[in-house]
Amino acid sequence: MGTTETTHGLWVAYGPAGVVGSIRHDDEGYTVTMAGADETTGTYPTMEIAKNALHAHLKPGSDWPQFRQH
Fold first, then answer.
1. pTM for the whole thing?
2. How far apart are CA 20 and CA 58, in angstroms?
3. Which residue, 22, 18, 8, is CA-closest to 67?
4. Which runs of E-coded beta strand occur in 1-70?
5. What tens digit of pLDDT does each residue of 36-70 get?
6. Of 5, 9, 32, 40, which has fewest CB within 10 angstroms of its CB?
7. Neighbour tally for 28: CB within 10 Å
């Protein structure tokens, strides 16, 4: 008999000026919230897609943010 372990997590995205957003993982997927936003940007099936979505919501020409797990 095995057990199923669900991993939940939070990653904060940092740009040159500080926090630009976050990605939270739960049973629904990876949810992106931009810094200062009242609502989420969306929930995505993989971390890679969530990172791309977060980057796409930054100003055009922005560098790729640094993601740190908390």
1. 0.87
2. 8
3. 22
4. 9-15, 18-26, 29-34, 42-44, 66-69
5. 999 999 999 999 999 999 999 999 999 999 999 99
6. 5
7. 10
